[in-house]
Amino acid sequence: MRSKKDAPVDHLGVEHCCDPGVPPKERRYQVLLALMLSSQTKDQVTAGAMQRLRAHGLTVDSILQTDDSTLGKLIYPVGFWRNKVKFIKQTSAILQQRYNGDIPTSVAELVALPGVGPKMAHLAMAVAWGTVSGIAVDTHVHRITNRLRWTKRPTKSPEETRTALEEWLPRELWREINGLLVGFGQQTCLPVHPHCQSCLNQAFCPAAQHL
């Protein structure tokens, strides 16, 4: 079901929103900003905002020199864009002051940044630093793994799901599970009215028996 790799995340995901031609430090910053923008926002909207930011100039210095009104216009209509303007400015200032314009190299330091949650931190570690620090669990991964009962008991939050999955899923699969399940959630296992009739998991998915 995911062999074609044709879901929005496959061509508009965070790693596709960044400029591969910029220096590594700038690319890592772009990865972090794309993740911050992506929260509660469709991939298509995040990709559009990143395209506008890159055209404007997407470095720590250029963002700090951009007034809030202009930054808001550049990222609109991402979800909670007003809050994200504030978080982007605050995080960029911290990166400039404490990390010489780079992003932190640990999950603990990443989640300490304004507007950065655990899922973003684990994805940043994987995409920006090439380090698998944990499973990145968003709403798609949380929903689907509970529907498939991949956790010993129902989980109530993405972080609870991450902990439950990491207890049994082989570490070599931690990085790829996010993209696979996000795409699956975008195309088949939708939040409302999932396409169970066309899903190859239908026969052994507990949730499919009740939908």
Explained architecture:
This protein has 211 residues and is an all-alpha fold. The protein contains 11 helices and no strands. The model has no long low-confidence stretch (mean pLDDT 96).
Features:
mainly alpha, 54% helix, 11 helices, 211 residues, globular
Q: Care to give the gist of this entry?
A:
This protein is mainly alpha-helical.
Topology:
Elements: H1 8-12, H2 24-38, H3 43-56, H4 60-64, H5 68-75, H6 81-98, H7 107-111, H8 118-129, H9 139-147, H10 158-166, H11 174-187
Helix content: 40-55%
Query: Main sheet?
Result: none
Order of helices and strands: HHHHHHHHHHH
Tally of extended strands?
A: 0
What are the segments in which pLDDT stays under 50 over at least 5 consecutive residues? none
Large-scale geometry: globular
C-alpha end-to-end distance: 20 Å
Radius of gyration: 18 Å
